[in-house]
């Protein structure tokens, strides 16, 4: 059972990490436009503008 | 737009040297639109950034203050193919946003807590507590407490606050038993842990919070999205007025920036946006939106004009008496205040259930405590069992029962073109047994059409149509539309009378009946179409009279027939008796009253209420606003006067009346499902409570029962997507009819209905 000494804190820490990431994303407005985010993921606006115009 | 626009009202300054503006953009549907708009705006000099929000169809633009004029941004968007409308988001919006974000934060925290506590609880249920000295179990309980207590303290705040508010007001809402259950569950679990006992309820408490927060969040998000949509529409339809400045300069100005004493120009065919006095000019005014009366009224200098009316023939200069917030007749306003006060006492189904449920639960818990004492158990053990009863009965499913149905039904109505202004509207709609319609603009279409097209020779119609194209007069527009004419003839406009032109070497006139000397021809037509306005064409040989009237909405008679099966129907109109009688006969409605003033309409509604009827009022005009507020529940078309929209519980889009019938049938379904859900949660309690009372409840049973009933209730709520199965074949036929006609509708509908078509569902993705 001694393994619990490592595993339980590890599990909690990982969960807390996920929570922190969620709160960070929420604070930076990432949940304000879920529909738009779905489209932005596949947009190619990281290409240089010249390529895209051609 | 010919005049420069004054948009300073909409510009924000988020930081030094930066200006920003929020715009509602028409026709944004996909990723390509996002890229086009954002890149297009960024290429403009001076623009710092642009961000499109696809969900709310808005774009926020930031630019270096002073680097460009705000109208340039509108022009740029217009050039990109996206007409945009400035939008003042205001304080209310940000407060709502904050509240929604807070719920989402709480939900995230509760989900984290629930997952981790569950992790520990599941290991215990799986046998980790089998070791004899209970050291592992105690460790797990303490770890659970470490996670659960802070989680509940934070994520439970929305419930605790609401419960405290209810108690201070000496009433009970659902949050009171929820808060009590959570606090008691946590408190008892800590005590049990201290005593090295086997059962602790940390997992139940946190899971309960998570389920309830999910329900609350969905509920709030649905409300915000439908409200966003309504706000977008109001921005698009926002009234502007052409303000005349001292030097004679004319500028298109949003109505919010017009002050009493300003002078505004109202051109022929425009809607008047202010209350005021005519300084200069003569014209006919269509007051149908204000009074319901369809015959135009002549005005000259010194006459009063009201916001919402349409200037039909000549240009007017109007001295503003009140604009923006004060554009109301005093009488309407006074009636409104009274009517709203009378209605605010409605008690929602969920609150009624709570009021019934809370005492029962608390009495049961108390009886359990006394019962165990009576059979000889110690007070400690009795208390533990009593608290277990409270935890088990904690209204998880009950808290979800009503909001879940509301979310699903509102989403379904939204797809059918109906926007709910309030959640309780569904319940009130379901209770309505009498439907009262206004005529003008509600049963009839907001725009007039040519009534006697069949009696007019094609050549005359074509000639009249090409003359009419040059006029902004609403009657002329209707004739032009009916004729299908494309090429205007060069005309001379005679203000207040009509237009004249040379056609094949002959002088022809098109305009008012007297000016065209067509009184003799007009008489029989006026008799045949008592509710029509007449306009005439004069050629050297003959006169042709056109009857233009507000035609019925295309599906009015079928919808009325449909609704009449379960509801009594009445028409209350401010229009003249013959006009109303004609419509009533056409629709087969036997009960109608004409020539009513706003106060008369309220009186009739009160008489109906006195007779025990619950009325649904459907109306659009300024004169309907008090009646809309006084009725049990109300619906307005989206073309309605602002004030009427603000009072209505729901708005419907497009030319058809079908959404009204859909609203009634879906509301009935929704209400049935709400009641069903409440019974489902009651049944769950019937099963779980005896277990708790006799001391057999374990944390595992509590967790299973709680999540099981929540899921059951949510799944049942999903059935609100389709109209009542009781409607059977009728309902199905209706739906397929709607689908079949959807494409025509898209073409013919009022422009505001089409491009803004929201996502198929406001609740989309929320069910995942």
Q: What's this model, at a glance?
A:
The complex is a heterodimer of chains A (54) and B (768). Chain A is built from three helices and no strands.
- Which stretches of chain A of 5+ consecutive residues score pLDDT under 50? none
Strand order of the largest sheet of chain B: 1-8-7-9-15-10-13
What gross morphology of chain A would you assign?
elongated
Number of helices of chain B: 25
Query: What is the average of the pLDDT values of chain A?
Result: 78
Number of strands of chain B: 28
Q: Secondary-structure element sequence of chain A?
A: HHH
Biggest sheet layout of chain A: none
Rg over CA atoms of chain B: 32 Å
What's the N-to-C terminus distance of chain B? 45 Å
Could you give the count of β-strands of chain A? 0
Task: Report the radius of gyration of chain A as a whole number of Å.
Answer: 20 Å
Distance from first to last alpha carbon of chain A = 65 Å
Shape of chain B: elongated
Going by helix content, strand content and strand pairing, the class of chain A is mainly alpha
The structural domain count of chain B equals: 5
**Alpha-beta classification of chain B:** alpha+beta
In terms of DSSP E residues, the strand content of chain B is: 15-25%
Features:
heterodimer; A: 0% strand; B: 768 residues; alpha+beta; Alpha-Beta Plaits; Calcium-transporting ATPase, cytoplasmic transduction domain A; 5 domains; 7-stranded mixed β-sheet; 25 helices; 16% strand; elongated
Describe the structure.
The complex is a heterodimer of chains A (54) and B (768). Chain A is mainly alpha-helical. Chain A is built from three helices and no strands. Chain A has helices at residues 4-27, 34-40, 49-53. The longest helix of chain A has 24 residues, at 4-27. With 768 residues, chain B is an alpha+beta fold. Chain B has five domains: 1-88, Alpha-Beta Plaits (2-Layer Sandwich), CATH 3.30.70.100; 95-229 and 353-407 and 666-723, no CATH class; 238-331, Calcium-transporting ATPase, cytoplasmic transduction domain A (Distorted Sandwich); 418-445 and 553-652, Rossmann fold; 449-549, 3-Layer(aba) Sandwich (Calcium-transporting ATPase, cytoplasmic domain N), CATH 3.40.1110.10. In chain B, strands 1-8-7-9-15-10-13 form a seven-stranded mixed beta sheet, with no helix packed on it. Chain B has a seven-stranded mixed beta sheet with strand order 16-28-27-26-17-24-25, sandwiched between helices. Chain A binds chain B through residues 1, 4, 8, 11-12, 15-16, 18-19, 22-23, 26, 31-36, 39-40, 42-43, 45, 49, and chain B through 30-31, 34-35, 38-39, 52-56, 101, 104-105, 108-109, 112, 115-116, 119-120, 136, 139, 143, 147, 759, 765.
């Amino acid at each position: 059972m001694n393994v619990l000494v490592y595993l339980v804190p590890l599990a909690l820490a990982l969960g807390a990490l996920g929570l922190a990431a969620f709160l960070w994303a929420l604070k930076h407005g990432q949940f304000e436009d879920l529909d738009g985010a779905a489209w932005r993921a596949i947009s190619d606006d990281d290409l240089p503008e010249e390529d895209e115009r051609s | 737009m010919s005049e420069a626009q004054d948009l300073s009202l909409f510009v924000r300054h988020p930081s030094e040297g930066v200006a920003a503006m929020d715009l509602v953009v028409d026709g944004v549907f996909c990723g390509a639109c996002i890229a086009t708009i954002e890149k297009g705006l960024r290429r403009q000099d001076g623009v710092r950034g642009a961000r499109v929000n696809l969900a709310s169809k808005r774009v926020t633009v930031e630019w270096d203050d002073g680097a460009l004029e705000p109208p340039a941004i509108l022009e740029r968007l217009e050039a990109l193919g996206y007409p945009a409308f400035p939008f003042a988001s205001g304080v209310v919006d940000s407060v709502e946003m904050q509240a929604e974000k807070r719920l989402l934060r709480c939900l995230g925290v509760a989900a984290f807590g629930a997952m981790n506590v569950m992790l520990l609880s599941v290991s215990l249920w799986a046998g980790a507590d089998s070791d004899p000295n209970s050291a592992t179990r105690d460790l797990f309980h303490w770890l659970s407490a470490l996670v659960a207590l802070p989680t509940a303290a934070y994520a439970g705040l929305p419930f605790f606050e609401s419960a405290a508010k209810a108690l201070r007001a000496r009433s009970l809402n659902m949050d009171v038993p929820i808060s009590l259950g959570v606090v008691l569950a946590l408190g008892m679990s800590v005590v049990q842990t201290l005593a090295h006992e086997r059962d602790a309820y940390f997992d139940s408490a946190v899971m309960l919070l998570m389920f309830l927060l999910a329900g609350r969040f969905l509920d709030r998000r649905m409300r915000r999205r439908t409200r966003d949509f309504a706000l977008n529409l109001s921005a698009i339809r926002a009234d502007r007025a052409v303000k005349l400045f001292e030097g004679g300069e004319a500028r298109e100005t949003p109505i919010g920036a017009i002050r009493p004493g300003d002078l505004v120009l109202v051109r022929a065919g425009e809607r008047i946006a202010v209350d005021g006095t005519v300084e200069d000019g003569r014209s006919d005014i269509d007051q149908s939106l204000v009074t319901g009366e369809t015959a135009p009224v002549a005005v000259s200098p010194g006459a009063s004009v009201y916001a919402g009316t349409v200037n039909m023939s000549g240009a007017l200069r109007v001295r503003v008496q009140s604009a923006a917030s004060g554009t109301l007749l005093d009488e309407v306003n006074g009636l409104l205040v009274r009517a709203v006060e009378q209605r605010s006492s409605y008690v929602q189904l969920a609150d009624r259930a709570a009021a019934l449920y809370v005492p029962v639960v608390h009495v049961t818990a108390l009886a359990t405590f006394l019962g165990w004492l009576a059979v000889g158990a110690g007070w400690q053990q009795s208390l533990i069992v009593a608290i277990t009863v409270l935890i088990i009965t904690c209204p998880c499913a009950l808290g979800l029962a009503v909001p879940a149905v509301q979310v699903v039904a509102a989403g379904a109505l939204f797809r059918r073109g109906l926007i709910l202004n309030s959640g309780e509207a569904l319940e009130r709609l379901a209770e309505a047994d009498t439907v009262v319609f206004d005529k003008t603009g509600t049963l009839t279409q907001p725009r007039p059409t040519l009534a006697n097209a069949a009696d007019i020779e094609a050549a005359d119609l074509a000639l009249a149509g090409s003359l009419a194209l040059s006029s902004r007069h609403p009657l002329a527009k209707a004739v032009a539309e009916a004729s299908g004419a494309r090429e205007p003839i060069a005309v001379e406009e005679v203000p207040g009378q009509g237009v004249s032109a040379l056609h094949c070497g002959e002088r022809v006139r098109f305009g008012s009946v007297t000016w065209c000397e067509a009184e003799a021809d007009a008489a029989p037509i006026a008799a045949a179409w008592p509710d029509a306005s007449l306009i005439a064409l004069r050629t050297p040989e003959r006169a042709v009279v056109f009857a233009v009237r507000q035609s019925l909405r295309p599906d009015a008679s079928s919808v009325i027939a449909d609704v009449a099966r379960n509801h009594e129907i009445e028409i209350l109109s401010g229009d003249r008796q013959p006009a109303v009688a004609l419509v009533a006969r056409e629709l087969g409605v036997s009960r109608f009253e004409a020539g009513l003033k706003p106060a008369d309409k309220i009186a009739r509604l009160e008489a109906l209420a006195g007779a025990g009827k619950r009325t649904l009022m459907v109306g659009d005009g300024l004169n309907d606003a008090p009646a809309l507020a006084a009725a049990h529940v109300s619906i307005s078309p989206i073309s309605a006067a602002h004030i009427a929209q603000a009072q209505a519980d729901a708005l419907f889009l497009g030319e058809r009346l079908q959404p009204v019938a859909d609203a009634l049938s879906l509301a009935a379904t929704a209400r049935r499902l709400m009641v069903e859900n409440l019974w489902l949660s009651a049944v769950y309690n019937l099963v779980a409570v005896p277990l708790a009372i006799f001391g057999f409840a374990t944390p595992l049973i509590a967790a299973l029962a709680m999540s099981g009933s929540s899921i059951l209730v949510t799944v049942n709520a999903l059935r609100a997507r389709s109209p009542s199965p009781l409607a059977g074949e009728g309902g199905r036929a209706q739906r397929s009819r709607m689908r079949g006609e959807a494409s025509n509708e898209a073409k013919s509908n009022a422009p505001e209905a089409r491009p803004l078509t929201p996502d198929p569902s406001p609740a989309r993705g929320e069910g995942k």
